[in-house]
Structure formats: structure tokens, C-alpha cells
Amino acid sequence: MTRNATLVRVRIYLDHNATTPPAAEVVDRMAGALREQFGNPSSVHHFGQVAKSALDEARSATAALVGGDPSEIVFTSGGTESDNFAIRGVAEALEVTGRKHLIATAIEHEAVLTTLKALARRGWKTTLLPVDQSGIVAPEALEEALTDETVLVSIMHANNEIGTVQPIAELARIAKARGAVFHTDAVQTAGKIPVDVKALGVDLLSLSAHKFYGPKGAGALWIRRGVRLHAPMTGGKQERGRRAGTENVAGIIGLGVAAQLAQRKMAAEGERLAVLRDRLEGGILASVGGTAINGARSPRVPNTTNISFDRVEAESLLIALDLAGIAVSTGSACSSGTLEPSHVLKAMGFPAHRTQNSIRFSLGMANTEADIQRVIEVLPGVVEKLRNLTRTVARV
Fold this sequence. Notes:
This protein is α/β, with parallel strands linked by helices.
């Protein structure tokens, strides 16, 4: 055991937007599947059909989570693949129509933004919609950006860094009135808040199992019946010919179990986490000077807050909190290891220092009132110590 491990008796995990610990029911079911449902679902014999039946059950559970039909679910390796599948698939399928304009927002996940950049290099026009300091997309901005060449609009349901929920139903209605296909990245909402593809009016929706207590490496793309898109990979006829390759049976089973658990627990857990989140925010703002919440407080997913700490570098605060046994994040886990400021906060128009001094706290099922109280007690001293260090360095 390391010295730090002996000093820290309790570790508090507040980075659930990066990933969640698999639920015990998920782990148990996947372990059984690895032992007993190892068959290839494409095989016609008993072992293959047992695996196929398990996939069908998971497909129904995943569809129910988002209000879709099982036939509209295509299993993927996670949110990034689902986003790529949706954007590239529609762009390439409808390229023959001459519509080569794509729209997203400036605060999308890198899975969307990097995909748009790749398509731009191949001749597609792209537009990134602005947001203000609320982090909410104005429907008028989408109306102005749409043209007769717009083939696809991709706007995330909730932002992974600040948690704000976009008015997807209204945005989808505007886009589809101009003949554009509408995709939403619901990786941060599916399993956390009610998601209904029919009520949202979207054509495509991405989700990922490990964001709601399922396994990594399993996700899905919901595709409204009738939407044209090219398959991302060529090969066999798996997933109705839309996603070649032998399915990750155990991972998909885990996704299905996580989806069932989310449906049962979502309402009560959302209320509980919102109370804890609000208590955490209130405690930090009251006890630590020079702090502010980034983005609109409502509507947000119930587990997320993003707070800036004046005169403190976010990376230093993250490390100091980790040494105190508290795990938080500076933003997207997919961007960790970089020294770049948050592209989300930058797009929201915050000054440079604020894009580099903000911390994301994302709560989850295991968090308790005691955890929140511990963070509120520890944080003021940690911040003051870092600020004193900064002042000392500045004087030298």
C-alpha cells in the first residue's frame, strides 16, 4: 500500500459523467453470459440461438429506455461509434442528393466535432452554432444556419461538461421543417432523465452503456425507421446489415440490464442526486470565495455541476482533491491529458482564465450526504492553500 493510500481512508468518486461503476446486477449477468452464452449469435445451432435470444432481450430493454422499437436499435461499441455512425452514415447516404451541409453546436463532444472536421476535409460544409453563457442553443440560431443544402443537424441532448439540457424537440422540429435529418447525442441523458425519441422528434439518437452503470464497449444508435444511412463497416449481415462484425454479446447483455435498472430507478435517483448536487453547489459557493457556476442551472441533468474557482488552476485543484481522496474532473475524459482550455467554456464566451479554472462534479448512485459534506469541508482549505501558493510564487 502506498503512503497516499494509507493517508486516504475513504475515496469519493464524483466523476460519473466520465464513467460509472458497473452495477452489481450488470456484473453478475455478464459473468454468467461469458460462461454460458458464448455462442455466436449468427450461428443456427443451439449455442448461437441462446446468444441471439439474449441479444433480442437486450435490444428490447434498450429500445424501451428511449421509447423506440427494438427493430430500430443497432448495437455499437459506445457513444463515439454511434455518433460517427449517425453523422457519416447520413452524410454519405445522402451525398447523391447534393446536400452537403452539416450543422452542430460549438459545445458538442469531440466525437461529433472531430467527425465534422473529417467530413469538411472531404468537401462537406459545416456550421457550428454558438451558445451564450447559459450553454443553451437558441432555436433562432439554428433557423438562421439552415439552408436548402443542410443534410444533417447534430445537437447533443445534454452537455457532458456543464450538464445543460438543450430544447431538442423544438430544434428537431425546425431542422426537419427544412428537410434535414436530426441526430442527438444522448450519452449524458439516457439512463439519467426520461428520454423519448418520439417526444423529442429526432431521427437518430446515440447512447452509451458505461454512462449509466453498464459496461464500457457497449452502446447503441437508435435509427428511426425509414432514415437512410450507410453502414460504417462492411462485412457480415449482423445488426440487419447495418453494423458488421460479431456482436459483443456479454457487453450488450450488460447494456440491457443497465437499461432495465435505469428505467426502474431513474425518477427516484434523479430527485436524490439533484438534492445532493444542489447542496454541494450551495456549500461550495458559501464557503469558497471567488466561485461561480458555469451554465444555466435549469434545465440540467440532476447529477452535474461545473464550478469555476478564481485564481486556481483546475489541474492543480484536481490533483490536490485526488490526494485528499476526492475524484473530480476538469471536463471531458476524452480530452484529459491536454493543456487546452475547455472548448465548451470557451464557446460559451468565458474569459481565458475561467476556461482553465473550472471543475466538473458529477454525482452518482453510490454518493451520499456524507460524501457531499466531506467535499464541502475539505475544499475551502485546499483552495486556500493553492491560492496562497500562487501568491507566493507571484511574489518571488
